[in-house]
Amino acid sequence: EEMEKQAVDGARRAFNSGRSRPLQYRKQQLSALLRLIRERQAEIVSALKRDISRSEFDTPIFELIGIENDIKLAERNLADWMAPQPVKKTLLTITDDVYIKAEPLGVVLIIGAWNYPWSLTLRPLVGAIAAGNAAVVKPSEVSKSSASLLKELLPQYLDTEMYPVVTGGVPETQELLKQRFDHIFYTGNSTVGKLVMEAAARHLAPVTLELGGKSPCYIDKDCDIAVACRRITWGKFANCGQTCIAPDYILCHPNIQHRVIEEIRQTLLEFYGEDPKTSPDYGRIINQHHFDRLLALIEGCTVAVGGESDKSQCYITPTILKDVLPHARIMQEEIFGPVLPIVTAGDVNEVIRFINERPKPLALYVFSSNKKVVRRMLNETTSGGVLVNDVMVHYTINALPFGGVGNSGVGRYHGKHTFDQLSHHRACLIKSLAMERLNMARYPPMTPSRLRTSMFFLRSRSGSCDQALRAWAVVSSLLALALLISLLVVLLRVSAHAGLGSVLL
Amino acid sequence: MQIIERLRAAFQSGVTAPLQFRLTQLKSLLSLLEDNEPQILEALQKDLAKPKFEAVLSEIDMVVNDLCYTINSLPTWIQPSYVGKNLATKLDDCFVRREPLGVVLIIGAWNYPLQLILAPLIGAIAAGNCAILKPSEISRATERLLAQLIPKYLSQECFAVICGGAEETKSLLENRFDHIFYTGSQAVARSILQAAAVHLTPVTLELGGKCPCLIYGRLDMLAAAKRLVWSKFFNAGQSCVAPDYVLCTPEMREELLPAIAKALSIFYGSQPKQSEDFSRIVTDRHWDRLMALLGKTQGRVVMGGEGSKEDKYFAPTVVVDLDGSDALMQEEIFGPIMPILTIESLEQGITFINQREKPLALYVFSDESQVVNMVLERTSSGGFCSNDGIVHMTLPGLPFGGVGASGMGSYHGRWTFETFSHRRGCMLRGWGLERISMLRYPPYTESNLSWLRWATSAKKKSWGVCSVIELLHFFFAVIYLYTYTEYISI
Q: Which residue, among B240, B239, B241, B245, has the nearest Cα to B214 in the 3D structure?
C-alpha cells in the first residue's frame, strides 16, 4: 500500500510546487514524450509483439501516430488553449473583463487498458500534461511487457515525481483508488468502470470512462458490398478483434447474408492467406482466460467460416457465424475477438429497433449508398460515434470527440478534447470599484423605479424577446434605408438640374 | 417506476427531437413565468420571506433571460459542427452532432427554489430530453406551485414533477437516468454519485463550500463594503456563491467595519427586522443551526447577533477575532453571519485559501491589478470575481459550476444545452478512392506504412497557400497510387 500512496503524495507535492503550470514546462515534457515514442519505437514494437503478437506495421498506425498527432497539436496550440477566452457581456458589465480561463485540476489518475497499452495510456497523459496537471499512470498488468517497458522508459524522459508510473494488478489498483485524485481517467470494461466511478464518488472526483459495448455494423442492400466487406474485415480482424471500436456484429438482410460471407471469406484470403496462423500480420488472443471465453461464445452457433483454434498459441482463426439469434450468448456481451456473428434483419425499421433495444454502443457503423437510410440511422439511433461506409477510422480525426454515451462511457477525449476534459474552465469576472452609480440601482431599499433600472441593465440584450424592440429595429432600418434612397434621389435631381447629370452618370 | 417508464417511452417515440417541439415547450415555460408572476412571488415570500426585488431579479428574471437566450440561439446550437481532417480523410464529412441523452433527473434546492430547478430544465428541454423535476421539499410553497403549474404548461408525456423528501429521492435514484443534475450539499452529492455509478450515469453537481473574500491593497472601502454587504446578505446569506468569510489585514479591518455598518444602515435601515428588503431563514432547523454556530464561536460579535425564532429573522451579523479552527470556519455558513479573519500578508491569505477545499466562488476586492492577478493565478475555484460578488453568475456567456469539492460540470446559457447533450462524432465516407484505403490492408509492407503515416500525420496549420500545396500533394498522391498500384498484383 505504501508504494501507491507514496506515488500519489509525491505527485501532489510536485503539483503544489507549481512547476507543471508554465507553458514552457508543459511543452518541454510533451516534446520529451514525443522523443520517447520516436527513439524507442523498436522496443515498443517488440513489447507489443510479446504481449499480443501485434504486427510491427499495426503498431505505428494503430497506436503511435495517434499519440504523435496529439502531442504535435498540443505543442502548436497550447498557448492559445491556455489563453483566457472572452465571452459575451451584458450592458452592465460592458467595461469589465469577462472570460473563461482553463486551469489544471491537480493530480489525475490514468488507468490504461491492455489492447492498445501505449495509446490508451499515453494519449490521456498528453492531455494531462498539456492541461498542467500531475498524473499517476497505471498501465494494464495484462499487457505485461508494455507495462514494464513503460515503467522503465517514462522516468527516463519525463519528470518522475510529477508523472509516476505505478504497475500492478487488482490489489494495487484498488489501493490507488482509495487515494484522492482530482480526476480519474479509466479505459476498460463497464464492470470495472462502475467500481471506478463508485470509488471516485467518495472524494467527489469527476471521471472519464472509456468503456465498450457491442458496436453494431449495418450493411444495407443498397451499397457496394465488396468494398464494405473488405473494410469491415480489416477493422474486425486487426489486433485480432481486440479493439473497443471493432465492428462487433453485422446486421443485414437475409438475402445478402451469403454474399457478405463470401466477400469476407475472399478478403480474408487476400489479407492473411490460406493459413492465417502463418501470416505475420494476424495477431493472437491476449491470454488463456479470453481465449476460453471466446471459444465458449462460439459454442452453439453456426460457423460459416473458420472456427478452428490452437490453445497453445492462443490462436483463433478468423471466424464468421451465420444466422445468429438475438438471444444467443454471443449477443449478450462484447465479443472482443476475431469472431463475427451475422444477425439478419428484414428492413431498416427492424435494424433501428434492434439497436435501440440494446445499450448505447461506443461506435455505430452503417454501410449504405442510400442517403435516406443514412439520415434515418443518424437521427433515430445514438452511439458514442458513428461512421458511415467504413469502420474505425473516425478514431484518427483528433478534432472529433472520442467517447461513449450511456453504458459505453462518460466524457470524451482526443486532441483538444483531452485538454478540455482534464482542465477546469474557471469563469472570471474582473470588475473595478468605479462606476458605482451604475450599481446603485440594485441596492436596497427597493423602489419600483430602481427595479426597472436594474432590469434594464441586467437583461441580456440579444436575448431579449421583446417584440417591440424587434419591431423598432426593423422599422428604424427601413426608415434609414428610405432616408438613404431619398438622399440619393435628391442628389441626382440637384445634379441633373445643375447640368452635372452627365458627369454623375 | 411508472412515471419514468412513461417518459422513456415518450422519448423513444422521438417526440422531443424536433426543433419545433423544443421551442414550443420553451415558449410555454416562458408563458408559465409571465402568467404567474404574482403567484411565484407569493410562494417565494412564504418560503423565504424573499423581498419582491430579490425574487424578480434572482429568480424570475434570471430564468426569463436564459429562456430568451436559449430560444433565440437554439436553431444555431443544434446544427452539426464540422471539424478539420487529415490528408487521408480529406474527401469525407466529419462533424459533431448534439444528441439528446434520454430521461434526465433534475434535483433542485431550497435557497433559489425556482431558478435552481428551472434553469437546468431549460437546457434539458433545449437538448431534446424528457425530464423529471424533483424540487426541494424544504421550500414547500414553491414545490407545490411547480407541481401545479408544470403539468399545465409543459407536455405531461415528457416532463413530470415528483415531490417528496429524502426517502422518495432515494427510491427515485434507484432507477436509471441518462443524466442527473443535482444542486445541494456535498454529503448528499456523494450518495447521488454512488447511485449514479450503478448505472454509469453522468452527473452534474452544483455544490457549495466556503467562498473566501480577500480584501487587500489600495481600494475605495465604502464602495467595496457596499458590494460585499449586498452579496453577503442577499437572500439572508443563503446563496451558494455568497462570500462566506472575509480575509483582510488588521489595519483594513479598522476601515472595513464602519464601512460595513454604514452600508447595512443604508440598505436595511437601523432595524433590519423592519426592512422589507431583508429575507428570513428558510426553516426553524436552519435558524437553530445558525444560532448554535454563533454560540460556539470563539470570536467577538461586533454587529447583529440577535434573532427571533417566530419569524425566523436572523440579524445581519459580523464576527471578528477568530481563526481558522473556529466553529464558524468548519462548515459553509449559509446565513447572515460574516466572520472577518485577519492576515498579515497577501501570501498568508492565499496559503489560507489553498489549505482548504476549492470553493464555488472566490472574491477579491482591490484596486491593484497585481493583487487581483496574483490571487487569480495562485488559487482555484469554480468561478472568480474581483470587486463584486455573485454577479458573475448572471452572465449567460460564463459557465457556472464548481471544481473539486464544490462540484463538477457547469451550466447557464449554452453550457446547460451542452451538459444535457451527447456530442456524437460522425464521419461519412464514400466508396471511391478505395486505392487509398488499400494502403492500410494486409499483407503489410513498409512502403504502404510510410504512405499511410504521411497521410494521417498532423500537418502544419493550413494557411491559404499551404492548403493549396496540401491539396496538390493529395492529388498527386492519388494519381501516383492509382497508376502505381495498377502494377501491383492484388
A: B245
Of A281, A385, A427, the CB nearest to B383: A427
Q: Burial, A280: exposed, middle or buried (Cβ in 10 Å; 0-12, 13-18, 19+)? A: middle
Per CB-CB distance under 8 Å, the chain A contacts of B193 are 197-198, 200-201, 204
Q: Does domain B2-207+413-423 have CATH number 3.30.465.10?
A: no
Q: Pick from B85, B426, B449: which is nearest to A386 by CB?
A: B426
- CA-based nearest residue in chain B for residue A384: B424
The residue in chain B having the minimum alpha-carbon distance to the alpha carbon of residue A268 is B442
Residue A502 lies in a domain: no
Other beta carbons less than 10 A from residue B57's beta carbon = 19
Chain B residues close to A69, C-beta within 8 Å = 86, 456-458
Which of chain A's residues have a Cβ under 8 Å away from the Cβ of B205?
A: 204
What CATH number does residue A346 fall under?
Answer: 3.40.309.10
Task: Determine the distance in angstroms separating the CA of A493 from the nearest CA of chain B, rounded to an integer.
Answer: 44
Share of chain A above pLDDT 90, in %: 80
Average pLDDT for chain B: 91
- pLDDT tier at A37 (50, 70, 90 boundaries)? very high
Instruction: Measure CA of the first residue to CA of the last residue in chain B; give whole Å.
Output: 59
Find where cell 441586467 sits.
Answer: A458
Residue at B417: amino acid letter: F
Residue B450 confidence (pLDDT): 81
CATH superfamily, with its number, for domain B212-396: Aldehyde Dehydrogenase; Chain A, domain 2 (3.40.309.10)
Q: Which residues of B are catalytic?
A: 206, 240
A309 and A365 housed in the same domain: yes
Q: Do B457 and A380 touch (CB under 8 A)?
A: no
The answer to the question of residue A170 being in a domain is yes
In chain B, residues with a C-beta closer than 8 Å to the C-beta of A60 are: 449, 453
Tell me which residue of A232, A234, A230 sits closest to A250, measured CA to CA. Answer: A232
Average confidence (pLDDT) over A89-117: 90
Position A191 scores a pLDDT of 93
User: Across the interface, do B376 and A432 touch by the CB < 8 Å criterion?
Assistant: no
- The ipTM is 0.91
**Domain parsing of chain B, residue ranges:** 2-207+413-423, 212-396, 433-489
Per the structure, the complete domain to which residue A36 belongs is given by 2-211+415-426
Q: Based on the number of CB atoms within 10 Å of its own CB, is A342 exposed (0-12), middle (13-18) or buried (19 or more)? A: buried
Cα–Cα distance measured from residue A275 to residue B115, given in angstroms and rounded to the nearest whole number: 67
Selecting from A198, A389, A426 the residue whose C-beta is nearest the C-beta of B194 gives A198
Distance to chain B for A75, nearest Cα, Å: 12
Tracing cell 455544490 back to the chain, one arrives at B207
pTM here is 0.91
Do A52 and A167 share a domain, yes or no? yes
Whether A465 is catalytic is no
Q: β-pairing, A363-367 with A385-388?
A: parallel
Q: Which three cell numbers stand for residue A464?
A: 431579449
In tens, the pLDDT along A281-315 reads 999 999 999 999 999 999 999 999 999 999 999 99
pLDDT at B478 over 80: no
Domain count, chain A: 2
Catalytic residue among A4, A63, A210, A263: A210
Q: Indicate yes or no: CB of A428 within 8 angstroms of CB of B61.
A: no
**Residue A459, pLDDT score:** 62
Q: What is the CATH number of the domain that holds A188?
A: 3.40.605.10
Residue A72 lies in a domain: yes
Residue A138 phi, psi (nearest 5): -120, 90
Q: Do B386 and A73 touch (CB under 8 A)?
A: no
